[in-house]
Amino acid sequence: MEIIAVPAIVSLVFGIVELYKKAVEKHQKKEDFLRLIPVLSTALGLIAGLVCYFAIPGIILADSVISALIIGGASGLSATGCNQIFKQLHKYGIHIKKEEDTSESDTENKDDSNSN
User: Fold this and answer.
1) Contact by Cβ (8 Å): 80, 17
2) Residue whose C-alpha is closest to residue 4's, from 71, 65, 73
3) Which end of the chain is more exposed for a tag (fewer CB within 10 A), N or C?
């Protein structure tokens, strides 16, 4: 049960960061705000680690406040890393598609091959 805190913190921080990105999307100094994402992710992770430690002690594998802060901060930064995985894959032309999208493109390819 103690391991559940890390993916929960990563998911929570990832969601909040996505909302943050949507909120600053049309701002004139968008790039300045986007540079704050790793700091924001770490801060949110630290706060979540503390909340888990004090509010739900059985959910986080930490025997001290410092351990909870480290686990929370690392989990927050992991959310930033998760975002970068998809961003870098897209940058190099690797697109993650849903199962439905793949089947549609397969049927289009079959139709094209039959018409030749």
Assistant:
1) yes
2) 71
3) C
